[in-house]
Design a protein that fits this description.
Layout: E1 3-8, H1 13-22, E2 28-34, H2 43-46, H3 61-64, E3 69-72, H4 76-88, E4 92-95, H5 104-111, E5 124-125, H6 128-136, E6 140-142, H7 146-155, E7 168-173, H8 188-191, E8 196-197, H9 204-214, E9 229-234, E10 241-248, H10 255-266, E11 272-274, E12 292-299, E13 304-311, H11 315-329
Parallel strand pairs: 1-2, 1-3, 3-4, 4-6, 5-6, 7-9, 11-12
Antiparallel strand pairs: 7-10, 8-9, 10-13, 12-13
Amino acid sequence: MTSSVGIVGASGYGGAELLRLLAGHHEVQVEVVAAHSQAGKPVSSLFPNLPGARCFDAIDVDQLGELDLVFLATPHGPSLELAATLHAGGTKVVDLSGAYRLTAEGFANWYGEVHPHPELAPAVYGMPEFFRKDVAGATLVANPGCYVTTALLGLRPLSPLLVPGTVIIDGKSGTSGAGRAAKDHLHHPHLTANLGAYGAPAHRHTGEIEQWLTNDLDGPGVVDLGAVQFTPHLVPMSRGMQTTSYANLREGVSPQDVQQALVETYADEPFVHVLAPGTFPLTKSVVGSNGCQLSALVDPRTNRVVITSVIDNLGKGAAGQALQNANLMLGLDETLGLSAIGVFP
Ligand SMILES: NC(=O)c1ccc[n+]([C@@H]2O[C@H](COP(=O)([O-])OP(=O)(O)OC[C@H]3O[C@@H](n4cnc5c(N)ncnc54)[C@H](OP(=O)(O)O)[C@@H]3O)[C@@H](O)[C@H]2O)c1
């Protein structure tokens, strides 16, 4: 029997990517494709890659409450209430926003708002590579931020090997990471052949990285690495994301220890690929997929590890990981609908 699912925020980049992925998924039926200002418009009027006569639905909480699972691809404001209401009614929810990723205290610090449902924060954190069992049993899953996914897949397995207080992360994102709404800095003349940093030193993903780099729900011991320095950049490509992470290694840690920790962590993971040290991953290798490629090298002059990690911000950084989580929550094969490999060149 197929499971019924709905997408709220289907007119946004994350929601439409879910629609694209679910078109190739035979165990779920997409019953609702809800939008806000775009309700009533044909899906194909915004997303020509999704042809057909289907129109965006209006958001109807009662209708959503009848479904097995709802994806919320909405800003954190609407997600805060929608997730709580659906969760209270017993509907499974995967929320792509930052509404339920942090503790209520962390949310107040990083989002500058009092969390209206502190008893639900944080929800189960949707990184199957680290919290698979929790995700499979969860009714509310917080899908991680895109930069956070990229950085943590490289850093978390190495955390016992690193010196606290030395982690620096440089992030670069394609512009679909900023969503579909038109903004001056996303206008073609501003963006093209241009590169710039933004959001440092208090980008919201900093707090999320710190929380989940150090929080051990059920995995092997993860040490507290203290404050993290994170600077994101916008690059003129539509999809794709890279983080380059730097940290000092504890005394006696060898390059072999670093590689072994990564290879062992991801040996059985379908979506994370560890490259040989000195091989640098390319964003195009994973665009259109749920994959992450990463590599680590040790610089003997500085005794630092340098980890480069790439994902598709709309794939493993948003819709792909959300579907991976939903598959687990619905008791399905985790990889269903996610078999595509990257589009290269
Ligand atoms: N883009 C990424 O790479 C990425 C990665 C990870 C996580 N995320 C997170 O995923 C969520 C969606 O991101 P996105 O990039 O897809 O954003 P987006 O392209 O701006 O789309 C936002 C969606 O939310 C809907 N929406 C806006 N205000 C709403 C409201 N008050 N009530 C209900 N629905 C509302 C919009 O509907 P209308 O268009 O019909 O108004 C649209 O469908 C965000 O929380 C974002 O932080 C995004």
